[in-house]
Amino acid sequence: MDIPKSHPRYESLLKREKIVEALDKGILAKPGLIAHGRGETFDYLIGEKTTDIALESIKAASALLVLAGNPVISVNGNTVALAKEEVVELAKELNGKIEVNLFYRTKEREEKIKKEFEKEIENGEIKLLGVDDANKQIPNLDSLRGNVSEEGIYTADVVLVPLEDGDRTEALVKMGKKVISIDLNPLSRTARKSTITIVDELTRCLPLLIKYVREYKNKSRDELENILNNYNNKENLKRMLNYIGDRLKSLEID
Amino acid sequence: MDIPKSHPRYESLLKREKIVEALDKGILAKPGLIAHGRGETFDYLIGEKTTDIALESIKAASALLVLAGNPVISVNGNTVALAKEEVVELAKELNGKIEVNLFYRTKEREEKIKKEFEKEIENGEIKLLGVDDANKQIPNLDSLRGNVSEEGIYTADVVLVPLEDGDRTEALVKMGKKVISIDLNPLSRTARKSTITIVDELTRCLPLLIKYVREYKNKSRDELENILNNYNNKENLKRMLNYIGDRLKSLEID
């Protein structure tokens, strides 16, 4: 389908096309389409823009990523479908580590996702983990979903999980890791269990994360720790619920 | 996947499975999965139960259906996937007319949907329109999406459209028809343009529609008109927005 750029829902329709394409390419499992729809509604309710509330969590997440000794970005089918370039860009600002971590894990999908990163792996820009080396196990998760790379998530101190499920988020936190999630649903278990939750759309917040990570590299450890100490995730989520609630109540039915 | 009945999200997961199955069977187009996800979020926000606000619109819709001279139930892939039995049950209480009306119309999908109703067509319980007889055109819509049956939507006075798109709803209203929509998004164009909008989940509100249609057949025309006159759709939608807004603001982040 050809979507004219002038269409009021151009961005949203374009993302929808990317998601359908990813299903056709075998990168995405079918329930990934339903998950995308759930996110669409939340984005619509927050007004399809990055709120000041989300910006605060983006800044805290950036500080945490810069302070991290061994950060890893976890990716699934939806993330690769929507934001592969941005994920690579962010990884390059960190240690280059990206780990494939699928809810519906099949060898075929893993390989297809790996292929998407072929150029960047060859260039040495990133290190793609979790496909050929997922031989460690997250405790308290069934084997397929708990398989992780020793060099990646298993030994990471900070894990960035865009679009993650609640079980895995909780299991990672229980392992003592700091988890940054990107989740449009402020009520999800992922959102509630994460160390820092960014309630924003993936392709909109990743460029901001990249920008602040770059900027914060020039800050002292004290300054960064100060940003983190002033951040309260539960309060941030509560403010987001209030924001959406107030917004809904103020909308007119024409 | 085997979902245990005790799972807190059993109903929701079961519907998700039905939707994926319908894609596999060729009844549903891929964007239908994304649309299902959008609905899931709204249902989650209204608390996954029929609100008193929705019950009012169900009652008004039931009155309108009983008063109708030539009502038609329009069905698409999502509706057939989730609620075929309920749609048949409701049609049997009316004049039996069900019309297939697809956003992404292909002959193949039409035929597959028709096949789902094979038994009921043979029994004479329902009349399935819009597949072999979609030779009339709704004004102001492109040809594929505007194709309708003369005996069905084209001459209907009341059209029930579960999960319809905004363009078509608006075009039907412009033709002078009364449109009852079932739409979990109180902000959608469908919701705003319909004569009566039921903001509720399909499989939850159809049994209620059936119940009230049965009951209202015993009411006088005056009583039914009174129910309709006391119903205000814009006000109902506004109350729904307030309800969701208040609910979000009252939720605790644990």
Multimerization state: homodimer
Question: Overall mean pLDDT score of chain A?
Answer: 94
Instruction: Extract low-pLDDT stretches of chain A.
Output: none
Share of helix among residues of chain A? Answer: 55-70%
Q: Tell me which CATH architecture of chain A applies here.
A: 3-Layer(aba) Sandwich
CA radius of gyration of chain A is 18 Å
How far apart the termini of chain A lie comes to: 30 Å
Total helical segments of chain A: 13
Question: Using CB atoms under 8 Å apart, which protein chain pair has the greatest interface?
Answer: A-B, 36 and 36 residues
CATH-level-4 superfamily name of chain A? Phosphopantoate/pantothenate synthetase
Give the H and E element order of chain A. Answer: HHHEHEHHEEHEHEHEHEHHH
- Assign the CATH class of chain A: Alpha Beta
What amount of the residues of chain A lies in strands? 5-15%
Number of domains of chain A: 1
Which descriptor suits the 3D outline of chain A?
Answer: globular
Strand order of the largest sheet of chain A: 3-2-1-6-7-8
